[in-house]
Amino acid sequence: MRTRRKHGARGFTLLEVLAALGLCALLAAGVAGATAFAVRAQRLAENSSVASLLLNQIYAAQRLQPDEECLLPNGWRMEAAKDIVQPLEGLYQEWITVRLVPPEREIAPVTIRALGVGP
User: Fold this and answer.
1) Per-domain residue ranges for the chain?
2) Residues paired with 101 in a beta bridge
3) Where are the beta strands (DSSP E) in the chain?
């Protein structure tokens, strides 16, 4: 003899379980994407702050001891150049350009230009 289920029986149908699993998968994918975006944004902010701090230290070190090489964190590269320019007054002056290139080029290189006066 076969038994019939009552109309108010407890439990979920296969369709309801599959729909719930699909929603869970979509939410997990969304959270993973948001987490990856947040990690990348944090890394970019960290590189930008490190670059701005390093740039001032490197410039000061170059002005005080121009013959010595600056120590940089792994992956960072420094490019320094001196240009002689003639402003409107007619005197030639030296401009120092210090450029920091971050690792993996995640952010744009950070550049500072300063008038080359004595320390």
Assistant:
1) 14-115
2) 77
3) 77-85, 93-101, 110-115
Query: pTM of the prediction?
Result: 0.52
In angstroms, the Cα distances linking 12 to 19, 55, 77, 108 are 11, 63, 61, 55
Residue type, position 83, single letter: D
Phi and psi torsions of 4, nearest 5°: -105, 145
> Residues 63-116: pLDDT tens digits?
677 677 777 777 787 777 777 777 667 777 777 777 787 777 777 777 777 776
If you search the block for the tokens 């971050």, which residue do you land on? Answer: 102
Nearest CA to 63 out of 101, 94, 32 is that of 94
